[in-house]
Amino acid sequence: MKRTYSLIMLLACTNYDADEPGKDDLELAEAWRVKFEQGYEKASMLFKGDADFSKFRQLNSKMETKLNIARESQNRYARNHFLTETAPVWLSLLLSILAWIMDKQQVNDSLMQFASMIVQIIAGVQLKKKPRAMTEILVAGGVFALNMLLGGSMKNGSCMMLGSFVALIMTTIAFFRRTGK
Predict the structure, then answer these.
(1) Which are the contacts of 30, defined by CB distance < 8 A and separation ≥ 6?
(2) Beta strands in the chain (DSSP E)
């Protein structure tokens, strides 16, 4: 019986690999992690006083190390994914701020407004294309609303406001798709 639990835990520990986060990889890694925890829990109940229990502890320690590395990797992946997926949104904000600054300095800002409008629409289309995390949708909506306010405070920010309006409509559609309403 001890050998069986050792093999189950060893198999689960060696098959657990969540270093490269992908949806299928994470689900499989989670299944192996759960199998390992079940095996360790049973082994600790059955063989706690046994001299060989130190092997189970070593495996548990190894697994904890792997779990910590995997969590750090997943967190890093999530941060990078968020930044790359919302890059057009942030770029549109940067262009809108530059257009606003140019407007306040009474420099022709129409090209900057046009660029902001195009990037906002591209970002809105990107939001609509594939399912997004609610955080990405809310950040995009906030940035597009801010862009609209910046456009409204300009002498002639109609181009920028139009881009913001179209992008906000797309963001609203993405929001309702995400919430299922």
Answers:
(1) 18
(2) none
Q: Distance between CA atoms of 143 and 129, rounded to whole angstroms?
A: 19
Q: How confident is the prediction along the chain (181 residues), in pLDDT tens digits per residue?
A: 666 766 666 666 666 665 555 545 666 777 777 777 777 787 777 777 777 777 777 777 877 777 777 777 777 777 777 777 788 888 888 988 998 898 888 888 888 888 888 888 888 888 777 666 788 888 888 998 988 888 888 888 888 888 888 888 888 888 888 787 6
Claim to verify: residue 105 and residue 171 sit in the same structural domain: yes
Helix 53-85 and helix 2-15: axis angle, to 10°?
A: 20
For 31, the domain range is: 2-83
**Domain boundary pick from 58, 83, 108:** 83
Residue 18, number of CB atoms within 10 A of its CB: 22
Is residue 109 within 8 A of residue 154, CB to CB? The reply is yes
Last residue of a domain, one of 83, 103, 118: 83
Instruction: Tell me, yes or no, whether 75 and 119 share the same domain.
Output: no
Contacts 24+ apart (CB under 8 A), 110-116: 110/156, 110/159, 113/151, 113/154, 113/157, 113/159, 113/160, 114/159, 116/92, 116/147, 116/159, 116/160, 116/163
pTM of the model: 0.57
Same domain flag for 170 and 148: yes
